[in-house]
Specification:
The complex is a heterodimer of chains A (76) and B (673). By secondary structure, chain A is mainly beta. Chain A is 0% helix and 50% strand. Chain B starts with 9 loop residues before the first helix and ends with a helix. At the A-B interface, strand 1 and strand 5 of A face helix 1 of B.
């Protein structure tokens, strides 16, 4: 079962977030709880941890801003 | 932090860890769901504070009451709220413990004793007093624990509640989970106080500081405190020192704890620390601990899956649970026919309104032992500043409760006790004072049925006196504030114009299943006397009454303006205008049927009230008449209320600014031009 990674809504006021950096290479294996990317919002920079274990598939490049809900990757 | 495992029964410590593990798995599942975008809701993580409710759980049962706040998922889990219903609620689903209408910041699950969750910082404390008072009056040994963060110590509601609990020696524990940060602002930026326990001591009761991260020390400390509260030794304030490892809202780690601070806080994190202590002491093997964790993980995974499969709560629920009876919700064009009270043929007695009110209170207390009264100065002497309670305390003892001067504490207490079936009647003296307790009335009493998906209700009554029309009371003791409250779905509002109706409506309000407000006019409290039915007498809510029949115009009115309209009608009759006077008596539920029936007959309508005209009830009613009866009207329905100014102290200005006989006559004449 794969887990989709979308830009989360972390604050009541969030509408978008910047995928500042992928902390894990595309295709690498990640552990649950391991920081996988950093997310920049108007309030803070936050390291987002892997919600599940598996292989990370990056679907969007870092350095861009995406609306909340945009799929940026997957853990398969 | 060294956990002294020798000072606790090993089985208890294992049980505490099991609760921590469940809380931790719930926290992880929510954060994972939010991070991956599977969940979309606001989350206020309590990571780091798991030890507090986990250590209390073995000391209480579902019979004990808990109140908490939006950062309270740990409290809910440890109190026993079912996880399936908890997740479904956070996701706004039908299967939620509150039908998805409250959400995670408003959990109510009476089956586990989680009675109310507020998203208004500190507002739970006055409500907890009510739960505690109900148990004290009933003579049980149940305790009420109200959780709040350190940030809540800055707000007035907590102070008011602590003072009332102290003076009434209520069986309540004020549990301040002190993580040293209020939302985004840390101590010492919001307080110069060095501790919070001294605030309880200043109010005459115990304040105890405990390490909320150490499950053994905290459990043992709470054991003694809970036992003392159960024994009736009065309230205790507990300052549970802890850390909030996460942000105010969102996921991940706190950015307010920088570098070494976060590292230090993590070493005190009770979840891994307790696990390690159990292992080191040989109480549990790694396999046993893994079993506990895996079983918690499986329970959470099953709950999440169940919740995701529950349908999102649909629109058909929108107008349900605003009131017990969905027909109370006002809707344009709605013409519900409610039966009026039968004509009274029994014994009567001459009474003024204040005497009729006392009669209603006294009879209601006789009829139902859950009825009690609270308010400022209602004890003997003076028996209430309006004399409605003269002799009542001597007769009823502790069921008549004079309070501190603290409206938030009064309404919160009424609300909390009503959650467990008491029928409180609160007096907040002048209607202008409603501003002081607006949060308790509108955000809590009024919304609780809806937010809890009707798992809880608030059958309380609040009486307030409007001082207008007499002169000399000034801007803060004269206003008619019904429009403020009419704008809050969930309240029922009555505004009698005679002693008989004050009695009949009040008895109906007290027996009602929803929060009711009765406005009483100072103009009528003593001046107007009439024959009032003796014994149980009720006027159904939502039934207007024609006080003078007429053919040319309907004057729709209520409260002390009824008399002004009746006098105006006599003046108008001299000029050949035959006015009908319709006394609404109840403002919500609104009797649209009798309003529209009367105007269908007369073809004209003027709504008259003592409240400010702009955005008043008159505008709402006039607008509905115009929309519903447009083709039948001889002229547009209009409204007439007070001028848009605070009530003046000058008698001349006050007389001129509120509708009176002369100005009503003049307004009607204009409509016939």
């Amino acid at each position: 079962m794969s887990t989709s990674l979308t830009i989360p809504k972390l604050q009541m006021s969030s509408t978008e977030g910047t995928l500042a950096e992928w902390l894990v290479e595309d295709g690498a294996t990640v552990e649950e709880g391991q920081p996988i990317y950093s997310l920049e919002t108007d309030k803070s920079v936050q390291e987002i941890e892997a919600p599940a274990a598996g292989k990370l598939v990056q679907k969007q490049p870092a350095g861009e801003t995406y609306p909340v809900g945009t799929e940026i990757g997957e853990i398969v | 932090m060294t956990i002294d495992v020798k000072s606790i029964d090993p089985g208890t410590l294992k049980e505490i860890y099991r609760q921590m593990s469940r809380i931790h798995e719930v926290d992880k599942a929510i954060q994972a769901g939010l991070s991956s975008g599977k969940f979309m809701f606001t989350y206020w993580p309590m990571t780091g504070q798991e030890g507090i409710p986990a250590s209390i759980a073995p000391l209480i049962t579902s019979e004990d009451h808990m109140v908490t706040i939006y950062r309270g998922i740990h409290d809910q889990v440890a109190k026993g709220v079912p996880l399936k219903g908890l997740f479904a609620e956070a996701l706004g689903r039908e299967g939620g413990v509150n039908k998805g209408k409250g959400g995670s910041p408003h959990i109510s699950d009476p089956s586990s004793g989680s009675m109310l969750t507020t998203a208004i910082v500190g507002a739970g404390a006055p409500i907890a007093n009510g739960l505690a008072l109900a148990e004290k009056l009933r003579g049980t040994d149940k305790v009420t624990i109200v959780n709040f963060g350190d940030g809540a110590t800055s707000i007035g509601a907590v102070h008011e509640a602590m003072n009332m609990a102290g003076v009434w020696e209520l069986p309540v524990i004020f549990l301040c989970q002190n993580n040293l940060i209020g939302e985004y602002t840390a101590i010492p930026d919001y307080t110069k106080g060095e501790n919070f326990t001294s605030r309880a001591e200043a109010l005459g009761f115990r304040g105890v500081r405990l390490n909320g991260n150490d499950p053994v020390a905290f459990h043992n400390g709470m054991k003694e405190i809970i036992a003392s509260v159960r024994e009736g030794k009065g309230p205790v304030f507990v300052e549970a020192m802890t850390n909030r490892l996460g942000p105010h809202a969102g996921v991940g780690w706190s950015h307010l704890l920088k570098g070494d601070d976060l590292k230090a806080a993590k070493t005190d994190w009770p979840v891994p620390a307790t696990r390690q202590a159990l292992l080191d002491a040989g109480i549990c093997t790694e396999e046993e601990l893994a079993d506990i964790d895996n079983s918690a993980k499986a329970e959470v995974a099953e709950a999440v899956e169940w919740a995701m499969n529950s349908p999102v709560t649909g629109e058909d629920e929108m107008l349900l649970d605003v009131y017990g009876d969905p027909d109370v919700v006002p809707r344009r064009g709605q013409r519900i026919k409610r039966e009026a009270e039968p004509e009274w043929t029994g014994e009567t007695k001459t009474m003024a309104m204040f005497e009729a009110v006392q009669d209603a209170l006294d009879l209601s207390m006789q009829a139902d032992e859950n009825v009690y009264c609270l308010g400022e100065d209602i004890g003997d002497d003076p028996g209430g500043v309006f004399k409605c309670f003269k002799g009542m305390q001597s007769k009823w003892g502790e069921r008549i409760r004079p309070t501190p001067i603290a409206e938030q504490a009064i309404i919160g207490c009424a609300t909390g006790s009503a959650l467990v079936g008491m029928k409180p009647v609160a007096e907040i003296m002048f209607a202008d004072f409603v501003g002081v307790c607006m949060d308790q009335i509108t955000n809590h009493a009024a919304k609780q049925r809806y937010m809890s998906g009707a798992t809880t209700t608030v059958p309380m009554t609040v009486r307030m006196i409007c001082g207008g029309g007499i002169g000399g009371f000034g801007a803060q003791h004269s206003q008619s504030t019904e429009a403020m409250l009419l704008h809050q779905p969930g309240l029922k509002i009555v505004y009698p114009s005679t002693p008989t109706e004050a009695k009949g409506l009040l008895m109906s309000c007290i027996a009602d299943e929803d929060p009711c407000i009765q406005f009483e006019s100072m103009m009528l409290t003593y001046a107007l006397k009439e024959e009032v039915p003796v014994g149980d007498y009720r006027i159904p809510l939502g039934v207007a009454k024609v006080k003078r029949e007429g053919t040319d115009i309907t004057l729709v009115t209520y409260g002390w303006q009824v008399m002004q309209c009746l006098l105006a009608a006599e003046e108008l009759a001299k000029e050949g205008i035959n006015a009908e006077v319709l006394d609404l008596r109840t403002l919500l539920p609104l009797d649209y049927d009798r309003i529209l029936s009367s105007v269908e007959k007369t073809g004209r309508a003027l709504v008259v009230h003592a409240a400010v005209e702009f955005c008043g009830l008159g505008s709402e009613i006039a607008s509905t008449i115009n929309e519903e009866l447009f083709t039948k009207l001889k002229g547009p329905a209009a409204r007439f209320g007070a001028a848009y100014a605070p009530i003046a102290y000058s008698k001349t200005i006050e007389t001129a600014q509120v509708p009176n006989v002369n100005s009503i006559v003049a307004r009607v004449r204009e409509m016939f031009k």
